[in-house]
Amino acid sequence: METNILTEELYASYKSLLFSLAYRMLGSVMDAEDIVHEAFLSLQGTEPGHVANVKAYLCKTVTNRCIDRLRSSQKQRELYVGPWLPEPLVADWPDAGGAGAGTAGGIGIDPYQAYARHEAVSTAYLLLLQQLSWTERAVFLLREVLQYDYDEIAAIVGKSAVNCRQIFHRARRAIHPEDEPKAPSPGLPGHQALVEQFAAALASGDIGRLLNVLSRDAALLSDGGGKVHAAVRPIVGAARVAGFLEGVLRKLEPGHSAKPALVGGELGLVTYAADGGVSGVVSFRVERDRIAEVYILVNPDKLARVR
Predict the structure, then answer these.
(1) Is residue 47 very low, low, confident or very high in pLDDT (cuts 50, 70, 90)?
(2) May I ask the CATH class of domain 90-114+189-302?
(3) Residues 109-137: tens digit of each pLDDT
(4) Distance in angstroms (rounded) separating the CA atoms of residues 302 and 264
(5) Strand pairing class (235-236; 90-92)
(6) CA torsion sign, 89 to 54 to 66 to 46?
(7) If 0-12 CB within 10 Å is exposed, 13-18 middle and 19+ buried, where does residue 184 land?
């Protein structure tokens, strides 16, 4: 009984931290939740007093199980149809008032509130993490996100502290190629304004306006997982992206709608079919004053938790 109570207390203390690690490692909400649950079951099955540092034990268990999951799914990933996008973390957009894409220009939020809700799990960020090896990803996240020191990371990943320091700096250069990101020029629209303009342009069918918010070499990635219709290759170039979106709009059934939502802590869109079911999640990468990448997730397996 005491063990159960202790585990419940630890669950409340460490669940968010462990989910943060697992989700960034895997890009899957469902798999991350499963692994966190398995880690606590593993802890509950240990003899009292056998775990000197519970937090380190749980992080090591989650890290190792994530790497095992990645290994087992490697072949499946290689055979994946079209671009792979992570399963999104979607939350209601504050003060949206139920606005759909047609009223996107009316949505608003205090920018500091939006910043406070940002959890650095945007689609673009998760895709960058996917470019790292499994060990690089684990070391980077344990250091950058969870603020572990190198001796602690070494104990978790089974490498020396010196090696972990080298791995981290290599991974950090891949994720953050510039140590000091350039600040946007004064007066240029931010992420929220660009997404609102994007949504309004789609709602009105104004392709010229859409081109104004896309960078010249903008790219669109569409993930249907081979289960629904989606572009199987990235679409590159503002005109091609706009043309693809125009074609998608023409094929939509009457009654299709969209509403603003927080996707990985940033403004995105959730789209709905005429019957009210979720049909997709759209997120963005903004670079300076333009949308550089559009991510459209329509794989139904990854939309199961979106409302």
Answers:
(1) confident
(2) alpha beta
(3) 433 333 324 456 899 999 999 999 999 99
(4) 14
(5) unpaired
(6) negative
(7) middle
> Is-above-0.70 flag for pTM?
yes
Q: Cβ neighbours of residue 55 under 8 Å, at least 6 residues apart?
A: 14, 17
Q: Among 3.20.20, 1.10.1200, 1.10.1740, 1.10.533, name the CATH number for the domain at 2-78.
A: 1.10.1740
Which CATH number applies to 123-175: 1.10.10.10, 3.75.10.10, 3.90.1150.10, 1.10.238.10?
A: 1.10.10.10
Distances from the Cα of 186 to the Cαs of 60, 183, 196, 233, 283, in angstroms? 44, 9, 19, 35, 24
Average predicted confidence (pLDDT) for the chain: 85
Domain positions in the chain: 2-78, 90-114+189-302, 123-175
Higher pLDDT, 30 or 106: 30
Q: What is the tens place of the pLDDT at every residue in 179-215? A: 544 444 444 468 899 999 999 998 888 888 999 999 9
- Element at 306 (helix H, strand E): none
